[in-house]
Amino acid sequence: MNTAKTRAVREKRTIPLSVLWDPITADSFDPVVEPGRFLPADTPRWPGHWTSLPTGWGAAPEERLLSGEVRSLINAAIDSLPPSQREVVTLRDSEGWTTEEVCNILQITETNQRVLLHRGRSRVRRALEQYLTGT
What we know:
Layout: H1 2-12, H2 17-20, H3 61-79, H4 83-94, H5 99-106, H6 110-133
Helix pairs in contact: 3-6, 4-6
């Protein structure tokens, strides 16, 4: 009887994940980046790394104008991220904060910060690639 009461008290303090997860506003469980964009695990050098880098742009006047457009596109892509990803990407990439500083200010674990940063960067990268390749 005491064991059951103790367990009931302990479980009363927890909240099931299904209560917190809202399928409308939550990120889907689909991969953020297509798996084909990474090198296979059996690749002798750099397994699991990106297969290609984003297309670069130079210093010609037209390219400088394009870089201003790209900067605007990147800012718009960051603004369209879910709030948690936007906060982490902004603090890490725009403000230059360290992992430890971001975790402390947002009260999240290092693992969660790394996941949010990866997903946010992946979405920004996808928007940038779509713009640069015209797809």
